[in-house]
Every structure is written in C-alpha cells, then in structure tokens.
Amino acid sequence: MNKDNKYDIVVIGGGHAGIEAAAIAAKMKCKTALLTMDFKTIGVPSCNPSIGGTAKGHLVKEIDALGGAMGFLADQAGIHFKMLNISKGPAIWSPRCQIDKDLYPQVALKYLQSLKYLDLVEGLVKEVKLIKKKIYSIICNNGTELTAKSLIICSGTFLNGKMFTGRDVSVGGRFGEQSSENLSDLLENYGIKRGRLKTGTPPRISAESIDYGRLDIQAGDMNPAPFSYLSNKVENKVLCFQTETNEDVHTELRKGFGDSPMFNGIIKGIGPRYCPSIEDKINRFADRDGHKIILEPEGLNTNSVYVNGFSTSLPKEVQINALRKIRGLKKCEILRYGYAIEYDFFYPYQLKYTLESKILPNLYFAGQINGTSGYEEAACQGLIAGINAAAKIKKLDDLVLKRSDAYIGVLIDDLVNKSTEEPYRIFTSSAEYRLLLRQDNAKYRLCDYAMKYKLIPKERYNQLKSEQNIIEESLFETKNIKIKADDINSYFIQIGETTLIDSTDINTLSKRPGVSLEHLINMTNAKPKSLSSIIKNKELLNILNIEIKYEGYINRQKKEIERFLHNEEKRIPVNFEYNSLSSLSNEAREKLMKIKPESLGQASRISGVTSSDISVIALFLR
Amino acid sequence: MIINDTITALATVPGISGIAVIRMSGDDAVKIVSNCFRGSAPLMEAERNTIHFGKIYSKNYLMDSVLVSVFRNPHSYTGEDTIEISCHGGNTTYSLIIDELISQGARQAEPGEFTKRAFINGKLDLLQAEAVSDMIHSVSVSGSIISARQLHSGISTKIKKFRQILLDACSLVELDSDFSDEDIEIINRKDLKEKAEEVLNFCTSLIESFNSAKIFRSGFYVAIAGFPNSGKSTLFNSLLGRNRAIVSQTPGTTRDYLEESILVSGVAVKLFDTAGLRETEDAIEIEGINFSHSVLSQANIIFVLNDISISEEHSDSLYKKIQEDYLAQKVYLIQNKVDRLPSLPEINKNAYISAKYGEGLPDLFNIIRTEIEKNKANINDILINERHLILLKGAAEAIRRAISELDYLSPNEIIAIELHDAARYFGEMTGQAWNEEVLNNIFSKFCIGK
Ligand SMILES: Nc1nc2c(ncn2[C@@H]2O[C@H](COP(=O)(O)OP(=O)(O)O)[C@@H](O)[C@H]2O)c(=O)[nH]1
Fold it and tell me: Cβ(B363) to ligand 1 under 6 A?
C-alpha cells in the first residue's frame, strides 16, 4: 500500500460497480484505492447467483468489450451457462450464467490484487472532506485516512440500509453485514438530493431437502460460450430445476399480507415493478393460478439453493408454509429467509453523462446508489465512472456512449433524464436500435472506444477490425455469387421451399426462412476470399447470417440513428432561459431547469417534456 | 433573449381595398400606438377587447381616421398585447402608418411570426398552426371552412387515439421479449394482428376522405371534351358567363386547353376546354393528344359534347372510349345545338343543351352540384392536408408490413420496428413526435402578417 495514502482515485465500495471502477482506473494507470468494509465481501452476489440474462447479458458483453472485469470473472466462477431467447430474434439473444457465489468473490479479489496500480483498503467511511475544492480527504472509522483527486462512490444498498422480514427490522446493507450511515448524510450535506428505494431477495433452501425427482430439469447449453474474449472455455457443472406455485401456495402467502412490510406501509421506498416479489405477483396477476419457480444451486461447495421467482419479505412462518406447498418442496428447509431491503439512493439527474456529479467536481456515482437494480447495471456504471475519472486525470476526452452505441449508453441516458421512481433495470425494450445493439457484435461496436483509452491490447483491436472486414466483404460477396436453379432446387424441395426458375444470388436466397447460409456457401465452387475464410468460423458466419437476414431493417435503423444524432447535435445554451417561455408546462420547465439538457435530443427524452415543449424550444433556438 | 419585442405588419392583402388592417403584437404594442393615436380616451388605459375610434398622427401630421382594437395578454391571438388598426385601404396609407409604428419602436414582422408567437405562447398547437397556414392557402370558401373546423375541433383526438393503440401494442410486443424468461404470454399474435388491422382501416378511410376533400383545397375539375366544332369553346364561355375562348367555325382552333374557375356550392370549379379530338380514318385518335389526356385524367367530371345537328349518335364511340379510359371520372354525354333541331327527341336520357343560347345549362350546373355534394358527403369530420396524407400513407405502409411480418412469424423486434414506425408517422401528424423539418415547413409557408 501507498505510504502517504495519496491517490489519484479512491473508489468507495467493493461491489460490482466498485470492482469495475477500481480495476479500469488502475488499468488506465491512475493510482487507485478501493475502500471496502471487508476484503472478503468484495464482489459478493447479494441476490441471485447469476450474471447476465435478457438485456443484462448485453451489458456484460459491452463491459467485456471495454476492458471491464465482469464477464471474465463470471466465466471463472460460472457453473451453468445458457443463451436465453434462442427461439426468438437475434436482437434479444442474451447470455446468462449461474455463478458459484463463494467462488465469485475469490476470483474477483484475486483479479484486483493482480493490478499493479490498485491498492485494496479496509475501512468504513466516517467523513469525507473536499479540501480547497480540489482534493478529497476520506477518513475511516478505523483511523485510516486517504486523499484522492477523484472520488467514486459505489456503495450499493449499504447507505442507511434496513432489512425487513415480516415485522422484524434490522439495520444492514446485506444479510449479516453492517450498513453505512455517515456517508449518505455527508453527501446530503453537500446539497445532493437523496431518496429511498427498496428491493428484495428470495429465501435460500437446502439442497438435501428438495425432492428433485418431482422437478423438471433445466440444463445449460450443449456448447456453452464464455462472456469474455479472455476466457477460452467454460463448462456446465450443475443443473437447475423448475417448478411452479399453485393456488394453495397463494392462499398461504395471503395469510401474511397483513404483516408484509410492503403492504402495511413500513417500507416507504418504491419497489421494482419488474422484479416483483411473489406477494406482488399474486396481487397483480390475480387471475393466474401459478408462477414459474427456478431452483438454482448457489455453488459447488454449498447446499444453498436460490428460489428464483420467490422474492418475499413476508413473515418467516408464512414463507416456509407457502414454500412447502410447491411441487417438489414439500419437505424443504429454509437456510435463510427472504427479506426486503430499503436503502438511500441519490437522484441521478444530478449527474453528468460521465457520471460525475453536477454539484461537486471530481465526485462520481456508480451503481445502485444511482437507483438502479442488478449487478450488470451497477458494473457498467462503475466502468464508465472509472474510465471518465481516469480520463479526466490523464486529460483525455470524456467517454460518453450514446443510445446508438450501446445498452450502457441507453442506461446512463435514461438514468440522467428519466426520473427514477423505482429501481432501474435494463430491458431490450429500453434500446431503440436493438437490431444494431446485439450481444454478438458488442466487441465490434465498442472497439474504437476501447482502443482510444487503451482498454484492450492493440493485437485484439487489430483482430476485431479484420473480423469486421471479413464480415463486410462477405456480405458484399454474397450479392455477387449466383446459384443456378438446377443446382439448388433439389435442396429447396427437400426443405419445402418454392423452387427457382432463374439463377439467383445467395444473399437473396439466404433471406428465405429456413434456408441455411452455410449450405449455400458450401454449394458454391469458387468461393471468393472472405467467404472462404468465414465459412470456417462459426461465430462470424452467424453474424453474417443475421446481417443478411435483417439487412433491410438494419439499414433502416442506421437511418434512424442519423436523425437521432442530428438532434443530439442541436445544442441548447447552458444559460437558456426556460422561464421566459410561458407555453412550457410547469413540469417541463422545472425538469429542464433541473437537468439542463445539452441538446434538443436530450431535452426530448426528459420525462415530462412533451414534443410541443420541444417544438417551442426549437422554434426559439432558430 | 427578448421575445416580446413588438412586431407589426399588414394583416390584409396589400393593394387597393376598402379597408386595411395593421396588426401589432408585443409588450409595447399599446404604448407605441398610443404615441401616435388621438381618441376620446387615452389608449394606455383601454380595457381588453375594446374598440376605439380616433386619428393617427405622424409628427402632428394627420394620416388617417382609424378604428383601433385592443387585445390584452394573454387574451389575444398571439397571447401578447395586440393591437389591430383598421385604416382606409390604398397603397400609401397603411405603409405610412406602419413606417410610423416602426419609427416608434416596433419591428416589421417576419412571415408567420404572429402565428409562431401564438405557438410559442401556447395559444395554438402545431396542428392548429398548420390549419392557419392551410386556411391562408386554401383556394375556396369551403376549404377555409374546413381548415377552420380543423383549427378548433379535435381532429387530432382520433389520430392520437390510434397512435396510442399502436404504442400500447408495441409495448406489449416488447414486454413479451423483456419477460421471455418468465412464462407469461403478454400478447398473442392474433390480437396483435386485429389491432393492426383496426388501425389500418382507420388509415385507409382517412386517405379516402382526403381524396374527397381535395376538391375543397385545389378545386373541382370539369373537363369539356368532344370533336372539333361540337361547341366546346361556346359551352366553356356560357358556363363562365363571359367571352373567353376563341369561338370559330374552323375545326381545331382551340389549341391546348383553356382553364377558368367559377364558384359552385362554395367550391372552386375549374373548367377545362380540351383541344378538339380529331377523327382520323375510322379510328378515334385520342391518345395522340397528350395535353388533353393530362387534363382528362385529373378531372372530376368529363362532359363529352356531341353536335346533335350531325346526329345523336355521332359521338357515341368517343363517349364509350372515354368512359373506358377514365374509370375514376364521371363521364356525361351532352347533346349540344338542340336549337338546330325542329323538335326534341322523346326519350330524354342525356342532357340536351344549346351552348350558344343557354338552354339546358342549369342541368349541367345540377350535375356539377350533385357531384360536389357527393364528395362532401364522403368527408367525415376529419380533414387532412398533403403533409398528413404522406404521413398517413407511410403509416399505412408500415402497418401493412407489420401484418405481413406477423404472417411470416417474424421475431418480435421486427414487428416492433414497424409498429414504432407507424406510431412515429401518427405522432408527426399531431405533433406528438417531434420533427424539426415539419416545424420548419409549417412556419415557412406563412406570409407576412400571419
Ligand atoms: N346553333 C348552335 N351553334 C352552336 C352551338 N354551340 C356552338 N355552336 C357553333 O358551333 C361552332 C363551333 O363552336 P366551337 O365552340 O368553336 O366548337 P369547338 O371546336 O368544339 O370549341 C361555332 O360557330 C359556334 O357558334 C349551339 O348550341 N347552337
């Protein structure tokens, strides 16, 4: 550890945001310290033992493309890999993996310890001072004192955290851990506005108490693919199991509603609509007689099983009685009861796109403290905050990803402009340009940014560029290779397609549903350069296939992006007097003055600002 | 950033007229006028919505006796303090007064600036601003009436409703993807298709109503066709009620075509006298006369004129041919020169007229009037302009594609793209989706003083 405790960057909090922020800042050669209450809790998955999933998998791929850690760590700790939504369109294919919850923190710690510019420091923050508007001084309960040019706060759900199970309330940020109270008050004293949110977690049950014979098996993929380009191979080591709730379960649960902190008003924070507790689900979808439950082992060396789909904060006896009414869980034993947690967050409209505070210079916020939910959402913010904090110190440009660049861009743009009423979770529907922002092309989409900040090695960059080239050229080549009707018709008859009369190019042919591009390429005798190399690479071939099948739509989305960027470039002066425009609605005026959008495009995405408000501003700017 | 500087411009058509109205809007409107106005009471204290008689002076030199209407912020067209000065018409009077107002601190308004201010101050929404612009450009009385109706009524309500249906459908489709790991089917494709078809029907009926409403915007077209010397120019003139086309006895005198407008049932009716259709050998050569063709294909009604003094059947083949070639047009066979017959035939199937002496002309007007009324009946409460039509067609296309993608079992995100597209077109109609070009277009079509 640094003798004088003077750092370029100090990251507070060792959760998923903190890991990324600290690691990337260190990779960018800034002297960095990661301050956490306990080394052993770095990267602990406090809720579900899984990484990725619909849209979240995209985030992990993007993090990996930008030199982040999450994908690489998940690959090492992963025990069950599955590409979700394979039966649906390629834009929403999403990788997901179960992780060993004990192994993940270990590989995270090992990874962080390997970084030359990074120090890990234990301590609970007692005080933060900004000295001469330039240097942050951080003082911990244990007497440790650090200084930093930039401070990144990634304290997750630990700010004034309160946990609820039925009428039992305890203070803490995660089961068995203390919460951090001073920090939240300190930040508020600096004029940063905070609110309260809540989230919950389901019970864990013991593996021996489950009647597996009565459950349906959910296996991982046959050929599981890793998240990260740094990983060679991953393996499925466990199975998951599926069951469902029923009317009896619901009846048991309803008995506890009177004691539920969600219903009796003890919890004031607003819960996530999208990751609802089981009590929420049976309340909201009253006509449904069952909800899917997945039993996910939490690791290889633990008997703890996560009951996915059963998040609850009902009293203990209600939880156990209800669970025991579920198929296969008749004799189940609870290892840890489900609980709800309520915590402070800071309204993210107070942030710039770089995640730097608009109020205090060189202070960054990332993760659940900004009102998001989920490890992946937290991690990508940590990464962006880390890159920007380091870039500022190294006098490089800000890194702002646009909605048309990445899901990360969508997420941060939403955070800054849309008021968070509930924990923000990323969705595929959040992204307008879904067909372009796929998980398979994240590495290509973001490699120029990654190279600019030297987040990936030069060789990696060159390789990505040459792959991109092969795909582009192959696309071109498919338009010029024709197949004779006689040569292909027997294949078409075999797959039940209408036969050809004239010879046709393979690009057109492969757009037909059910026709295999690979088969078509293989049929051509004299393959041009790129096609002959792409045919040997399954992954690239798959991308080519998507690019051909959806070419029309992809091109349309590219056009839309041009329009979008045009509005992003219409700057609004910082001192724009919204007050003098009487026709703006009060809500719009208030929001605009609060957020101070940089462009007309940004203004149009602020919730509460209507298109006629935008028209008025636009007319005014002319 | 000053927006309330005071602007002024002539609000009526420039040139010689009975009266001219000068409009003024802005914080200093009342002050500036009161500087050069002398009436029975001081203007500065005038209540809103009051009219004052008095005289306008320029440096003690009397310019005109005028009526001054005072509107107070926000109860005016622009939402600002507004003055309207009614002065005597004539080229010099109003321009001298405007010069005086400008020297007192007002600024010459730019085209559309009054409406732009009304818009900025929330007095008009985009659709209404557009209706104002349509009204200015409308060719006929009914056109203005319908634009005015659009200005005040809820044309956008329906469009907004259908846009919402699209957006809801979209979010359901997207939710379906978002919750693909849960086993909840959020929307089934059959319902989705029904919704899409409902919106598509709305689009098509609106497009039809646009075609009907077109006559109010660009007029109702009546073309007169017939062999040379059948009396086309003569009829053209008698319908117009004045001598315009050259009438001669040498076939082929009417070159190209002549066009004039008259007002029937409040609609501008455009009359076209087409070039004579010549008969070569046995074949009737109408394809060769391109200009006539373009006129005939635009027409709402075609009158085929026959010279009955040659024979009642003389033009039958021509009539038949035109009927076949112009399916969208109402084609009427008109028997002309009945004054030359000793007596009229018994069965009165066709219109029998004498273009020269005016007999039977009311019949022709009746035909025109009936057709116009039929068109009017097709127009619901909704009326749209050319921009709306383009958007509407775009929306209809997108929905059609969405439906065919549904049939192809394409993935959700593709369906969502089409539905979003359609919703965007709808949004641009009502101004709910913001589009800069639309805004520029609407305000650039205005003239000064509006
Ligand atoms: N007696 C009579 N002569 C007519 C009538 N209409 C047209 N004519 C005459 O027919 C001739 C040709 O008419 P014109 O209008 O030039 O025919 P166009 O070639 O079809 O335009 C002129 O001498 C007209 O005066 C009619 O109703 N009665």
Answer: no
Query: Nearest CA of chain A to the CA of B117: how many Å?
Result: 9
Nearest CA to ligand 1 atom 7: B231
Ligand 1 centre to CA of B270 (Å) is: 21
pLDDT of A188-241, one tens digit each? 999 999 998 888 889 999 999 999 999 999 999 999 999 999 999 999 999 999
Which helix (H) or strand (E) segment holds residue A358: the answer is none
Higher pLDDT, B436 or A103: A103
Q: How many CB atoms lie within 10 A of CB B78?
A: 27
What pLDDT is recorded for position B1?
Answer: 38
Mean pLDDT (chain A) is 90
Q: How confident is the model at residue A451 (pLDDT cuts 50, 70, 90)?
A: very high
Structure tokens at B392: 């509407």
pLDDT tens readout for residues B12-43: 877 667 788 999 999 999 999 999 999 888 88
**Helix, strand, coil shares, percent, chain A, to 5:** 40, 20, 40
Name which residue leads in pLDDT, B29 or B380: B29
Distance CA A516, CA A544 (A): 12
Residues of chain B with CATH 3.40.50.300: 223-377
Rounded Cα distance, A440 and B11, in Å: 61
* Ligand 1 atom having least distance to the Cα of B340: 1
Q: What is the CATH number of domain B223-377?
A: 3.40.50.300
Residue nearest to atom 9 of ligand 1 (CA): B231
Q: Which of B122, B174, B434 sits opposite A604 (nearest CB)?
A: B434
Q: What is the mean pLDDT of residues A44-54?
A: 91
The model's confidence at residue B261, banded by pLDDT at 50, 70 and 90, is confident
B74 prior amide bond cis, ω within 30: yes
Adjacent-strand bridge partners of A206: A304
Q: Does domain B7-123 have CATH number 3.30.1360.120?
A: yes
Task: Return phi, psi of residue A349, to 5°.
Answer: -65, -10
Specify the domain boundaries for CATH 1.20.120.430 within chain B.
Answer: 129-209+383-431
The beta-carbon neighbor of A84 closest among B116, B181, B409 is B181
Rounded Cα gap, residues A21 and A30, in angstroms = 11
User: Which residues in B lie closer than 8 A to residue A90 (C-beta atoms)?
Assistant: 411
Closest CA to ligand 1's atom 12:
B229
Is the shortest distance between the CB of B237 and ligand 1 below 6 Å? no
Is A429 at the interface with chain B, CB within 8 A? Answer: yes
Q: Is CATH 3.20.20.100 the right assignment for the domain spanning B129-209+383-431?
A: no
Cβ(A292)–Cβ(A218) below 8 Å: no
**A257 contacts A319 by C-beta, under 8 angstroms:** no
Q: Residues of CATH 3.30.1360.120 domain(s) within chain B?
A: 7-123
Question: B413 to chain A: which residues are within 8 Å by CB?
Answer: 89, 91-92, 428, 434-435
Closest C-alpha to A175, from A347, A281, A334? A334
A59 by DSSP, 3-state: which?
Answer: helix
List strands edge to edge, sheet with A240-244: A216-218, A240-244, A292-297, A304-308, A204-206, A334-336
State if residue B300 touches ligand 1 by the CB under 6 angstroms criterion.
no
**Torsional sign, CA A17, A18, A19, A23:** positive
Instruction: Tokens for A527, please give them.
Output: 């393959």
Give the closest of B175, B182, B434 to A611, CB-based: B434
Is A322 in contact with A212 (CB distance < 8 Å)?
no
